[in-house]
Amino acid sequence: MKHYDFDKPIERRGTDCFKWDALQAMYGREDLTPMWVADMDFRSPDFVMEAIRRRCNHEVLGYTMPSESYWRAVTAWLQKHYQIKTTKDNLHFIPGIVAGISYALLCFTQPGDRVLVTTPVYPPFLNLPKDSGRTLVASPLKIVNGRFEIDFDDFERRAEGCKVFIMSNPHNPAGTVWGTETLARIAAICERHHLLVVSDEIHADLTLPPHRHVSYSTVCETARNHSLTFMAPSKTFNIAGLGSSVCYISNPDLRKRFFGWLDALGVAGGNVFAFTAAEAAFAHGEDWLRQMLDYLNVNVRTLGNYLKENMPKVKAVLPEASYLAWLDFSAYGLSHEQLRDKLVNEARVALNDGTTFGGDAYRCCFRMNLGCPTQTLLEVLERIKEVVR
Fold first, then answer.
1. What angle do CA 146, 240, 80 make, to 5 degrees?
2. What is the helix, strand, coil percentage profile of the chain, to 5?
3. Which terminus has fewer CB within 10 Å in the chain: N or C?
4. At a CB cut-off of 8 Å and minimum separation 6, what does 341 contact?
5. 180-192 vs 152-159: helix axis angle to the nearest 10?
6. What count of other Cβ atoms lies within 10 Å of the Cβ of residue 89?
7. Is 307:368 a contact under the CB 8 Å cutoff?
């Protein structure tokens, strides 16, 4: 078995990389270590890059379509990892999950309709409903024993009158893995209140052992019949720039309506590299993914141990899936603005501002991306420790 090296730094500056090249525009300086945008600073897998190079050798990049081998790779991955037994007829290519959620809102809701989310949550979940004229309804999560959990009494109250629940599964930020019992309770509440569930499962493949991802559609017949599931190889294999995602729908009526909407928009074509890379990733990615998850687990433990020993005032929600941690610095007695200034201008690190995940309730909180060499993580933590002492 080939050994993959995740310790080797990869220079990304000057490649129009949003994570590195947008620092000046977003934070006002370039000399920061970026631990914000949710992609990894690991080299994309060699088997993906080789597949792209082989395709480039043809030297014609015309209109393309997903091949039968692409669909075989996708359906085999879904069945092996998530017990989703499907054919390509229940799947539709989409050029990215954020776009897919936007399409779902436009297809299934009208301006003014209420859309439910649980906060803190990935900012597009907040922005897409508001920007499309829908009414955002937020149910705050609670932290229990160091992990996010759903306040089901509040969730059910807020579900009343909503049309759609946009679910992050695993949850972003902090990679909380929703178990079968939690997902079943969500399904029962959403069924009682007639909500469509849009399940964003882009981080599913990055579930860290010993945790296990449960796809919402597999929990029960109710969940399968009132849901859309979005998945992608983009986070998993660090190929987010290719915009390659899929939507799975079991319910034939929902499928006909949504897939018809997508076809009317003309978004099924994708691009040649999206199909090529995804097929290679799903067909050959098992060993790479296993090693990468082991490395991420080391980073999660490194962060947890470092905080316990050096910054015990930081209240952290550590990921059970993916590479995003939620850090609450409120015990240091500094304002949110002071913390943000110290992190950027003294520690020279770019983290995601917690208020963008749900407003002022998350002041003094920041999201940290652990998808980097362990040495980089340790260097950043040393700098943060010095400025919050």
1. 70
2. 45, 15, 35
3. N
4. none
5. 30
6. 10
7. no
From the list 363, 380, 304, 303, the residue with the least C-alpha distance to 328 is 363
Neighbours of 264 (CB within 10 A): 9
Determine the Cα–Cα distance for residues 316 and 303; give it in Å rounded to an integer. Answer: 9
Q: Are strands 33-34 and 349-350 parallel, antiparallel or unpaired?
A: parallel
Locus of tokens 């469509």:
196
The verdict on whether omega for the bond into residue 312 sits within 30 degrees of 0, i.e. cis, is no
Look at residue 53 in the predicted model and tell me its pLDDT. Answer: 97
Q: Torsion-angle region of residue 146: left (phi > 0), alpha (psi -120 to 50) or beta? A: left
Which portions of the chain are predicted below pLDDT 50? Answer: none
First to last CA, the chain: 45
Cβ(38)–Cβ(319) under 8 Å?
Answer: no
Residues with Cβ < 8 Å from 232, sequence gap 6 or more?
A: 96, 97, 202, 244, 245, 246
Q: What is the pTM of this model?
A: 0.96
Three-class SS of residue 254? helix
CA neighbor of 378 nearest in space, from 311, 303, 295, 328 = 303
Identify whether the C-beta of residue 229 lies closer than 8 Å to the C-beta of residue 215: yes
Token couple for 335: 């304002």
Single out the residue of 115, 123, 163 nearest to residue 139, CA to CA: 115
Question: How many angstroms separate the Cα of 261 from the Cα of each of 89, 100, 331?
Answer: 15, 11, 49
Using CA atoms, how far residue 11 sits from 160, 253, 295, in Å, is: 49, 48, 19
